[in-house]
Write a structure and sequence with these properties.
eight-stranded mixed β-sheet; alpha/beta; six-stranded parallel β-sheet; 14 strands; single chain; 21 helices
């Protein structure tokens, strides 16, 4: 009797991000593919490119699908502010605002044309005087209409800005009231973007019929669980693994929505993964999980050191090998402490700073550039775009120092950030602020210096200490197996063990010692 070959289980890695910049999504997908699973990586279509498959950005052996998320429900809330005492005169929609603004511009053009006509076309004096009087009345009415439109437009723009970044007392009260009245369902009202993701990703998951969905972040959690429930209704079992971090939400509204969303769907998942032991314990206590979540830090794969290091960031900054260069990799914002770096440049003489950021046009980057210009160090501040996740350590390795000047915030106290591991795999000495989660491993390993958060003078001291003897700090990575412990080859093992428990024993990878992301530790 003929035998049939059982196909590999299909794993879908689902991310609410543009995948070109999501290192976690790439690493999870690469690990699953190397373990013998059929892997599909789904994320948002980046701006300027349409939906569909995108093999150019996929890890080896991974099918990539980009999906356009229209954000219709989310944008409607942002562009249709409700009337209230603070913005009582605001237009009620983008369409009304755009229509009134365009109509005013058209009237202005007509009045200007009529005025020119009265100047150049000859008419009898009484007729011309009457026409000018009528035109003056029209101009007066236009001035009143312009002032009224300007007032309503200003209120509309203010209302839209407030909707885009809620955080006041009324927003907090609204969130609390929604939670009391709607219970766990309040996320639907407070964060409509979660429903937009369902509209975009849900049909794709239904069509793929995966055996396991790995949901990255809290926004994709509900979409994955609902897809699993629909599949189970047709007799097809789908396991759901939720992968979460300790990132704090910016407002009370977002916090309440996230809490309600998680409490609704976390009990329906089959496994939970996170990036730190401390946060794993918090999740188990908060959601009453039957087992402690697996911990898989988001670390780069191990690679032997490059000698000499590839040109990378130094070449992009057009700097010679003997010019000192520090680098910060990651998103920009006031909490990142980058203002401390810029303020220190005048006291560090020839030192250059490179900021590798997802969006070089970010408003905070412009603020930093203006600050550097006012201090006379603009030529020593370099802003560079992200590089693909697999290239980050090699790209950074030509710098002299990696910095993490974070401010003390609750979500910064839980887990080592990804860029700390990227600096380590680039063999860079680090200068970090005195947040416990950053300072402790730095002092234990001896791979850098610690400074008081927000203290520019102490930052200058720490950078100077590293530049005086950089080899001392780089040698810390040669002692013990710290980089192998912090490698994705090691960190992904608990994740793959979880997959095996849910889907059955793993098949061996076709090339376990290859040169890809899951190469052997050699």
């Amino acid at each position: 009797m003929a035998t049939t070959t059982r196909s590999a289980p299909r794993v879908v890695v689902l991310a609410d991000s543009a995948l070109e910049r999501d290192s976690r999504a790439h690493r999870v997908a690469a690990a699953a593919a190397a373990a013998g699973y059929e892997v599909v990586l789904i994320g948002r279509a980046a701006e300027g490119r349409g939906p569909g498959p995108g093999p150019d950005a996929a890890p080896e052996g991974v099918r990539l699908i980009r999906v356009t998320v229209a954000e219709t429900l989310h944008r409607r809330r942002l562009t249709r502010p409700r009337p209230g005492p603070r913005h009582a005169l605001a237009y009620r929609s983008t369409e009304s605002y755009a229509y009134r603004t365009a109509l005013l511009a058209a009237h202005a053009a007509l009045l200007a044309s009529r005025g020119a006509e009265l100047d150049v076309i000859h008419r009898p004096l009484p007729v011309k005087a009457a026409a000018r009087a009528v035109h003056a009345g029209a101009r007066f009415r236009h001035a009143l209409r312009r002032a009224w439109t300007a007032l309503r437009s200003a209120q509309y723009r203010a209302a839209v800005r407030r909707r885009a970044a809620p955080g006041g007392f009324l927003d907090g009260a609204t969130a609390t009231a929604a939670r009391l009245l709607l219970g766990r369902r309040c996320w639907r009202r407070l964060d409509p973007l979660l429903l937009d993701l369902e509209i975009a990703y849900g049909p794709v998951l239904d069509e793929l019929r995966p055996h396991l969905v790995h949901a990255l972040g809290h926004r994709t959690l509900g979409t994955a669980v609902r897809a699993a429930l629909r599949a189970e209704g047709t007799g097809h079992r789908v396991e759901v693994v939720w992968d979460t971090t300790a990132k704090a939400e910016p407002t009370r509204r977002a916090t309440v929505a996230r809490d309600a969303h998680e409490r609704t769907y976390v009990p329906l998942t089959d496994g939970v993964v996170t990036v730190a032991d401390t946060y794993a314990d918090r999740l188990r206590e908060r959601h009453g999980l039957p087992a402690r979540p697996a911990v898989a830090r988001n670390t780069p794969p191990y690679e032997p050191p490059h000698s000499p290091p590839p040109p990378g960031v130094r070449a992009r900054c057009h700097l010679a090998a003997d010019v000192p260069l520090l680098v910060h990799s990651g998103s920009a914002g006031p909490a990142r402490g980058l203002l401390t770096v810029v303020d220190a440049l005048p006291k560090l003489y020839d030192l250059h700073a490179a900021l590798v950021v997802p969006d070089p046009d970010d408003p905070w980057i412009r603020t930093l550039a203006d600050r550097a210009a006012s201090l006379g160090v603009a030529r020593r501040l370099h802003v560079l775009p992200y590089v693909p996740p697999a290239e980050i350590p090699r790209f950074l390795s030509s710098a002299d120092i990696g910095v993490l000047p974070e401010h003390r915030l609750p979500d910064r106290q839980v887990a080592l950030p990804t860029r700390y591991f990227e600096y380590a795999h680039a063999r860079l000495p680090v200068v970090v602020s005195d947040i416990r989660v950053l300072a402790r491993p730095t002092l234990e390993i001896g791979n850098g210096e610690v400074f008081r958060s927000g203290d520019t003078a102490d930052f200058v001291r720490a950078v100077g200490a590293v530049l005086t003897n950089p080899r001392r700090y780089r040698k810390a990575y040669e002692r013990g197996d710290v980089l192998r412990e912090w490698s994705w080859q090691t960190q992904c093992e608990p994740l793959l063990d979880l997959y095996a428990r849910l889907l059955g024993p793993r098949r061996p990878a076709p090339d376990p010692v290859g040169s890809g992301a899951m190469g052997a530790l050699t």
